[in-house]
Structure formats: structure tokens, C-alpha cells
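My current task is to audit a protein record that another person submitted. What it holds is a sequence and that sequence's fold in C-alpha cell form. Thanks in advance; the entry in question is below.
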Amino acid sequence: MIASGAGIVVGSIESVTRYYEKREPLYGKAVESKSGELKVTDNYPDNKPILVRSEPNTNDDNIIGWAEPGITVQARAWHGHVYPGINGLGEFEGADGNSYGLWFRVVGLPVYVKKGDQVVREAVHNVYIAGNFLRPTTEQEKTDFYTSSE
């Protein structure tokens, strides 16, 4: 019975995945009209945690950890699932005419991860942050990023 139950779960996940692939063919792909850029992690105005995810969607099972505000990162715009956002970031029309959420794939950044009873800081790479948790860099932040020895 357990094996058949697992088969149903796997089958359900596969059918949901196929549904979204048909509905959102650009999901999980870079936004072609945008190149990589520097962004800064930002939780203004709500002061909510900046969740860092393994996929560009709001599923709870893909949360890796959370980032501090004020970290300059290299990022590229990515098609993901729509999310509640500000300034139109939560939903935009892709080149295929479908609605997507504007996510950013981040090259690398430090995040806080809960491991058992402890919270540890780890470096992660090629992860996703919703667009409403990133802001453009100032000229000074760009200079600091490119001249930093870290």
C-alpha cells in the first residue's frame, strides 16, 4: 500500500509539472530581453524575510534559507510563477503572452539556514529571489562591489 501511495504522489507531481509546462512554457528560463545585472537585497517596506529558493516559485518546499538586506548580488531576470508583489514585479507578460512572476537567479550570496536547533550562515549559488526583494544598485554600491577584496 505504501508503494502504491508513493506512486500516486509521484504521478500527481508529474501531472502538475506537465500542466505548468504547457501553461507556462518559459517557466524556469531566463528573460531573454534582460542581461545580468547587480541588485541589492531589500525587504523595504514590509521588513519581511528575504526568502532564498531553489526554484522560481513560492512553494514552501524549495526555501533554502533567508538573506540579509543590503547584500549586493549578481543576478539575472528569470521567468517564474506569479506571486503577490509591488510595482508589477509579481506578474508580467512573457514573450509567449503568458503571465509570469519576475524572479532573479542569483549567482551567489550568503544565507541563513536552519539546521536542527541552530541557524548557520552558508554560501549558496544559482538560487532564486522574488523581484520585490531586490532593488537596483547605487553607483557607490557598484563601485564597492567591483573593488571589494571579498
In short: Residues 2-23 form the longest helix (22 residues). Residues 68 and 103 are 18 Å apart (CA to CA). Residues 28-138 form one domain.
